[in-house]
Amino acid sequence: MTASTALRALREALVLEHLESENEREFDTALGVFDHPRCEIVATGEVFDGTDEVAGYYARLGLVCADRRSTLIELHHADDAVIVEVELAGTHLPSLRAFRARMTAFFVFDGARLVGKRVYGGAQGTEPALT
Predict the structure, then answer these.
(1) Looking at residue 18, what is its pLDDT?
(2) How many domains does the chain contain in total?
(3) Is residue 24 part of a domain?
(4) Which residue intervals define the domain SnoaL-like in the entry (predicted)?
(5) Is a pLDDT exceeding 80 seen at residue 10?
(6) What are the φ and ψ backbone dihedral angles of 92, each rounded to 5 degrees?
């Protein structure tokens, strides 16, 4: 395995661990894959920087969509990122309406360190914007 192949495999493993831990509501694990947790929600302009802010975002999201789950559709590697397309589904608790939306997230890396997540999509209607 070459260095670049090993780096891609490591990055992909971190992203998949993050996505699965979000689905399992294991948010300490989801945060732990980051060197420094940072999540940007492009549709709303919100930026959550640091463990406390990102953990607070997860807590807030749980109040509006406790059963949110993402399913991986595609995964692509770029020079400094892993890009995923997911289908996000769940129930918006205040309205009890089910939703399904496709979203894209860029997991940004500095070498082997995951340094940020940038989420695109999810601003229409009431669905939450987190993969």
Answers:
(1) 98
(2) 1
(3) yes
(4) 17-115
(5) yes
(6) -75, 110
Residues with Cβ within 8 Å of residue 3, at least 6 apart in sequence? none
* CB count in 10 Å sphere of residue 116: 19
Give tens-digit pLDDT for 71-90. Answer: 999 999 999 999 999 999 99
Contacts of 26 (CB under 8 A, 6+ apart): none
Q: Pairing mode, if any, of strands 113-120 and 97-110?
A: antiparallel
Q: What is the enclosing helix (H) or strand (E) of 73?
A: strand 69-78
Partner residues linked to 116 by β-bridges: 108
Burial group, residue 118, by CB count within 10 angstroms (0-12, 13-18, 19+): middle
Q: Whole-prediction pTM value? A: 0.89
Q: What is the pLDDT of residue 1?
A: 73
